Every structure is written in C-alpha cells, then in structure tokens.
Amino acid sequence: MSMTNLFKEEIRQKLLAQHSDILYRESIDKTELESIIRNIIEDIIRRRHMDTDEQEKAMAVTQMVDELAGYGPIETIMNDPQVTEVMINGPHKIYVEKKGRKTLSDIKFDDEQQLRCLIYKLLAPTRRRIDESFPYVDVSLKDGSRVNIIIYPLSLDGTSVTIRKFLGTIKKAEDLIKLETLDQRMADFLVACIRAKINMLFSGATGAGKTTTLAVLSGYIDNNERIVTIEDTAELRLNQDHIVRLETRPPSIEGKGEVTIRDLFNNSLRMRPGRIILGEIRSSEALDMLQAMCSGHTGSLAVLHANSPTEVVYRLETMILTSGLPISLDIIHRQIAVAVHLIIQQSQLSDGTRKITNITQVNGLKDGTVVLEDIFRYEFSDFSEGKVQGKFKATGVVPVFFGLFAKKGVPLSKEIFNKD
Length: 420
Description:
Elements: H1 3-18, H2 20-24, H3 30-48, H4 54-69, H5 75-78, E1 83-89, E2 94-98, E3 101-104, H6 112-123, E4 136-140, E5 146-150, E6 160-164, H7 173-178, H8 184-195, E7 200-204, H9 210-218, E8 227-231, E9 243-247, H10 261-268, E10 275-278, H11 285-294, E11 301-305, H12 309-321, H13 329-339, E12 342-348, E13 354-366, E14 369-384, E15 387-394, H14 403-407
Parallel strand pairs: 7-11, 7-12, 8-9, 8-10, 10-11
Antiparallel strand pairs: 1-2, 1-6, 2-3, 4-5, 5-6, 12-13, 13-14, 14-15
Helix pairs in contact: 1-3, 3-4, 10-11, 11-13, 12-13
C-alpha cells in the first residue's frame, strides 16, 4: 500500500479539523496547501516511527494536493465535455449523463471523508456552507454549473451530490437547432420575441433544458438594456454589459436574515430594470411578476416547473391562491391573460434528447378561462432504433401580438406561421 493510501484518511481528517479555512477559500493556494500536508505527513511519520524516503513523501504530498485542489476522483468526468450531469449517491456510486443517457461509472471515492473534501472544494467559491443545521444546499460553480448537496441524516445512504454541468458549447440559437431542440422557424420566432420584448415563461420538468434555452435566448437582448436577474442560486451567465445579478439568501442559524425571490423581485422594480429575468417562479412572487408585466415591465422572462402549457396556468393559480393573498380565481385568470404572452414548453424525451414540444400563446379569456393556442409544436410519430421520430410543425395560428414586431422594428415574416 502506498504512503498516500495509508495516510489519506488521517490527512483529510486533520485538514478538516484544523485547516478547513483553506478549503473554504475561493482560490486555494497550492504552495500553502503543500506545506500543511507535508507537516501533517511528517507528524504522522514521527508518531508511527516509520522509515520513508523524501521521494515517497513528495509523491504523497503531490497526490493529496491534486485531490484537494481539484475535483478528486471525478476530475476526469468534470472535464469531459460530453458529460452533462454527475450524480453522486454516496462515495461508491457515481452516475453520469452523456447524450441524455444515465450510466453507472466505475469511479468511486475511497470513503465518505473523501467525498466531504470534494464538498469543501465545491462550496469554496460560494458564500454558503453545509452542516447539521443546514444539511442541504444549492450552489453555482464559477462556470455556471449547478450543484445540489444533501448530507446525512437527510440523505440516509451517505452524502448525495448532483452536478448539472454548464454547457459552454450552447451559446446561440444555431446550437439549439443543431441539437434538434427546435427548428429554424421556431428559433427565428423566439429571437424576434426576445427583441420585441414579449413576456415569456419557460416551462418543463427538471432536466428538460429550459434554463439553457432561456440563457441562450437571453443572449439576444440588446446590449444597451439594463438586465436584472433574480435567482435562488445564481447560474445565468449573460454577456451583456449592463447586468445586475441578485441571489436569495437563506436564514441564519437563528432563523433570521432570509431574503426570498419575492423580496428581490419587489426590490428589482425600484432598480429601473429594462428586463427582469426570474430564475424560477415558486411561490407568491408569481402574482408580483404578473402585476409587473401588466404595469410596463415588458420582455420579462421566467422559468416554471410544469409538464404542459395548461399546467403552467394551473401552477400559477395554485401558487397565488396558496400564498394567502386575498384574490379570486377570476382575477388571477385576468392577470395571466393580460400579462403572459408566450409559454415555451420543453421536455426530455425517452431517447435523452431535449426538445421544445410547444410554443403556446395566451389568447385572452373564454368563459373566464385562459385560452391557450399552440403556434408551433413537436409531433411524435415513432420510436425506432433507440431514437424518437417526429417533426416540428406550425399550426397555422398567427400570434395575436404579431403587430408588436413591426412596432418594435423587429423584422419577421408572417409566412413562418403557415400551417404544415
């Protein structure tokens, strides 16, 4: 057994007990880490009265620094551009997603202690911590990857870490077309909607790709606009110059100091935003957002978890009604009908591909109910050779807000809506 394998558990324990501050730093100083690890190893050797040469000692120091300053056992899969998600279910089960398919990898952590060291690495650049008082946390890495961590006693089989990697290769609408997430007509329409300041909700289940699509389309917002992003965990990476990024804050150990999405949203209205991008609508901020859309904050974009455009309406209803606000269902429907122009529904299909299945307009009310009309949809035809077969089709419906494109100086041909 090598010296590293013999000592690594004790080294980690001493680091976490005596030098955890270095692991929490945004940038780990390798020279300082080397010195600390060398001192720990020399102390272990003295106490055990062991005979070792300098070369073996240096190798042990190097291996531990590489592990602690990098991502340890998952370093290779974190650097693999084909891996889109890493799911760690305790130290000995690591699943990876490639091309929409999840498989169990042969990579393992030595033990729970080594996995905890990775957590310190992931949390280092953030303002958040995890312990028995707060046994789960969401953070965003520097590259935009999203991380969820949950530990014992909530995670019964050991620490669970889920890393959804930021795909830096998906930057333009053309990239989404190549991935067959949508077709050229749909892309032209959605880009025009962004430029014409149409209010849009991006809907789908977890992992459907809705945030990626929102991020890509946000890139077409004019560089002169003031953009305010509001997220639970800041992950959107926009390239415009005038951006204000806001992030919620969990309560302290005493239960004080929490700042919610709703708090940030209400504050953002006083910040002269040209655009408001809401990372996810979850609660009573739904009504605030609808009212803001109605009062001149056009071009707002938001993400919502729902399985269909119809379910988007139900989710908005439920979030507002269960918030305790004194408002009737009729008024909620009127707010939705006036505020929301477009719902972009996205799904991950059985072959792992991600597609926009519906681009749906909100067309007023009928008998007190919100009217939804598909402008484009994906029509499934078959499943063969492990791949979903189907086509993107225009329904022939022309958006009721089509006149806004000309008013905003956004060129768009009516022919793209011709029925297939």
